[in-house]
Amino acid sequence: MRIALINENSQASKNAQIYSSLQQVASQKGYSVDNYGMYTAEDSAQLTYVQNGILAAILLNSGAADFVVTGCGTGEGAMLALNSFPGVICGHVEDPLDAYTFAQINDGNAIAIPFALKYGWGGDLNLVYIFEKLFSEPFGGGYPKERVVPEQRNKKILDEVRRHTLRQDLVAVLKELDQDLVRGAVSGSRFEELFFPNCKNEEIAEYVRSLRA
User: Which pLDDT belongs to residue 123?
Assistant: First the structure.
């Protein structure tokens, strides 16, 4: 599994801590972690939580990432932004129980964590425990386990509903947005080296290249 970490500007100072906690768990599973930043609050490429959603959608729909870890001060804005795009199912995760039940019941591909609200003493430990429970078992296994069949059925129904309510052509969607907003989402200092070698969708890659040209 290739996991992407995205931080917006208000919580950029925690990027190193979040990356360390995520990498600690991912390395035990043999997963890769790509840190798309922001790396510090002073980065020249500034991301808002709305741009977190744009970047996450590009990474997931292109196959450059299998899962996205992101967030903001409360986690709510990032969750709403990510869920605005096709191909993204993002859960709001505050603790290990949230992480486990989201993975097992909702079988999504992104989480948004509150990195300021209720993030106090022991916040770094909570992150490790969240990632441990999130990736403890294959996704979609059900909880309780005897509920796996109806929960998987409901997930398929949700996927079909989203197929009709969200336009599936991501490039067409992105082209209708403010192009400076989208360009800012793919302007990170390490974006090019992380994204293009792992991107599996040439249409999305070409669009991103045109933005960065």
Answer: 93
